[in-house]
Amino acid sequence: MMEMNKQLVVGLVQMTSSSRIEDNLERAEAIIEQLVEQGAEVIVLPESFALMEKYNGQKLEHLEQHGNGLIQSWMSSIARKQKVLLVGGTIAIQSDIESRPYARCYIYDEQGIELTHYDKIHMFDVSVKEGESYSESANTLAGERPVVFEWNNIKFGCSVCYDLRFPELYRYYQTHNVDVILAPSAFTLATGKVHWKLLLQARAVENLAFVVAPNQTGTHDNQRKTYGHSMTVDPWGAIVGELAEQQGGLLCNLDLSKIETIKEKFPVHQHRKLMS
């Protein structure tokens, strides 16, 4: 078995994405360039980075086919130009049901080649508070499979936003010895205040993995408010880095040797009694 790289420099992009794709891509590229200049090897964009709908159905006007489209071309080009692993938040990709595309997270390597993709599994169908409710399943088709991929001898597990509330997904990643859990998000302001940090730390601690979670922030064109506070959490639950509410980039150096060190001293996964 090849030795895993011990250090990984990750850049998280925090945005207030609008309903104008070109503006969003321009802003994202500027933040990415800054992070790469600072040494980022991996860039992770938030959920819905390229388009935050102003009205229901707007994303259907910008729907892309798998392997073909403006946003996919942009992601591939950025990964190749900046020579980074790019985790592309989510974009709307045509499914077999025209009105319900997938919320798909693409991963591109340094050559701009797609390594894999993950379709968001859990749909955000909730009432956050009076006057603020969501029905994501009405216009998005849920994915069905967890996705693990390897890059530079580092194992990553994919998830998106509302997935964070379903620990069985992350236990799957733990059983596959994932080192880094990816969680691009558009977590709401109301739920973010009470649950964002809590959920990220829980997923990191219970699975002894790093969690990398860029988030949307601020007030969007549809008046939806997101929480910001993009952060990375280490396997002991310590926050490696965190932004506040501003748009911008967060650079985090992950010491991956911590994972094995903790597992040796604290072999919690060997103590499990109840298996699904």
UniProtKB/TrEMBL annotation:
PROSITE patterns: CN_HYDROLASE. The keyword Hydrolase applies. GO terms for molecular function: hydrolase activity, acting on carbon-nitrogen (but not peptide) bonds, in linear amides. It comes from the Bacteria. It holds the Pfam family CN_hydrolase. Residues 8-256 form the CN hydrolase domain. Keywords: Hydrolase. InterPro entries: C-N_Hydrolase, C-N_Hydrolase_sf, Nit1/2_C-N_Hydrolase. This is Carbon-nitrogen hydrolase family protein.
